[in-house]
Amino acid sequence: MGRLSAEQAVGDAFRTEWGRVVAHLIRVTANWDLAEECAQDAFTRALERWPRDGVPENPGGWLKVTARNRAFDRLRRARVGEDKLREVGKAMSEHPEDEESEVGIEDDRLRLIFTCCHPALPIEGQVALTLRTLCGLTTIEIARAFMVPTETMAKRLVRTKHKIQNARIPYRVPPDYHLPERLRAVLVVLYALFNEGYSATAGSDLIRRNLCAEAIRLARLLVELMPDEPEALGLLSLLLLHDARRPARLDAAGDLVTLEDQDRRLWDRPAIDEACALLDKAMRLRRPGLYQLQAAIAACHGTAESADETDWAEIVILYDRLNQLAASPVVRLNGAVAVAMAFGPQAGLDLVDEIEQGGELADYYLLPATRADLLRRLGRTAEARSAYAEALELAPTDAERRYLSQRLAEA
Amino acid sequence: MRYALFVCADESQELSEEEVQEQWKAFMRFQQDMEARGALVTLQRLQPTSTATKVRKRDGGLVVADGPFAETREQIAGFYVLECEDLDEALEFAARNPAAEFGTVEVRPVWAD
User: Fold this and answer.
1) CA–CA distance from A40 to each of A44, A89, A214, A391 (Å)?
2) Interhelix angle A82-94/A3-29, nearest 10 degrees
3) Looking at beta carbons, which residues of chain A come within 8 Å of B91?
């Protein structure tokens, strides 16, 4: 085997095996830093050995054993107590080296996900640690993705790991009676990770796309590990649907293109099909939830041939159900847009007025922006213009301000 | 592993005699529960912050002043030290404390020797 293909094999193994190796080492050593360092060592060694000796038959097994031996050596050299060594040795022998018991390893990654996404940890720490330990992103890469100095990210990771260790957050999949709420916390982290890459327009495009890809990869892993959890299926479906529209989201100038105006031929059809199949599977489990409903809404858009053919009446129903499950003014605002599309701008405007009276979205630019759009469609141009101006004041990014200015100019 | 559970509550809350009794019973139930599990190491109930005094020494000078260390709506009203398996167990116990219903319970691991 040539050097290049051996290096390629190490790269492939990194993507598929990093999380497994780290998850396993954390369980046997209970030491997060040691686990990361020894995993890193194992991959470095693979880069030296595989081009020379050939790629092992079971690269994952090779990496795990190498990392484990390294951890054992280092613990021995650090003269940890005999008791600790025996404990680690015992944990190591629980899973034979040939790793016939795939299930055991999968459990380690699930343990790792639930521990990284423990609600006692700060959310930014949860996201960063998940990227570091499960996906193998370096601190520098994570720092770039979140546009913070490397040192800040390094501190964040250290603090998070310290809390796990010092407050003794257990390394385990939570018991059944805690599973629903803890799984929700995991889904929140994966969705936050995806949105970080999807919604912000600043930062390097490549790094941001990578964040979305990692979020999808983790959601896939979660579905693989917990195949009967409808909300995990729902989240994966939702992420795939959002991601499928990526090629059509920005125009040549880098400005946001609204769903209505997107060139639907650019959407990733196979991804949409896969997402719909996942959603079907989730719905058959008959335990509806927030992510399934959001995916169902995204699927209505994703499967419509054109903006005009969108099944808005169905979307209105889905927003109603979403509101019953988790009432929020933002969901109601989105619902009002759907109502306007299904039953005319006046019906939508009535709802927007109601939300505005509630006062909860006072600083949210999409409230006046939505009102402006509806007024424009009703031909109430003067009012529309003043609502666009109001939205412009509140809009958080340049891309959004450009979009609104354009609309204001048209009105 | 030991964890301190700080009971934080709004002192200005006015309760009827009956409510005070109810609350007292609820705290006693929690205490008995912790004792029965062998988890209770110690507990202390504190007098209100109107009795608190701050002491600081700066540049050799002593400053003594009235009041708690921080002026916040919720103040520490007491604390428990519990022996728990891990943070998850400590959090479960904290959730059972009556103060979780009307105030906040802060859970802090205690350094081991």
Assistant:
1) 6, 21, 19, 49
2) 120
3) 120
Best of A168, A171, A176, A181 to mutate (most B CBs within 10 Å, chain B): A168
Residue A221 has pLDDT above 60, yes or no: yes
Structure tokens at A256: 């946001």
Q: Cβ contact (<8 Å) for B1 and A168?
A: yes
pLDDT digits (tens, 9 = 90+) for A131-174: 999 999 999 989 988 889 999 999 999 999 999 999 999 999 99
Please report the ipTM that was assigned to this predicted complex.
Answer: 0.88
Share of chain A above pLDDT 90, in %: 69
On chain B, the residues whose CB falls within 8 A of the CB of A166 are 109
Tell me, letter by letter, the H, E, C secondary structure of A198-220.
Answer: HCCCCCCHHHHHHHHHHHHHHHH
pLDDT tens across the length of chain B (113 residues): 999 999 999 988 888 999 999 999 999 999 999 999 999 999 999 999 999 999 999 998 999 999 999 889 999 999 999 999 999 999 999 999 999 999 999 999 999 87
Query: Which residue among A168, A170, A174 places its CB closest to the CB of B109?
Result: A168
Q: Are B87 and A174 in contact (CB < 8 Å)?
A: no
Q: How far is CA A288 from CA A11, A234, A292, A334, B6, in A?
A: 39, 9, 6, 20, 38
User: Does A102 have pLDDT greater than 50?
Assistant: no
Q: How far apart are CA A336 and CA A52, in angstroms?
A: 64
Structure tokens, A408: 């204001």
Shortest Cα distance, chain B CAs vs residue A167, angstroms: 5
Mutate to test the interface with A, among B2, B85, B88 (most CBs of A within 10 A): B88
Contact A187, A295 (CB under 8 A): no
Chain B residue closest to A162 (CA)? B109
- What are the CA-CA distances from residue A75 to residues A82, A158, A198, B109 (Å)? 10, 20, 42, 26
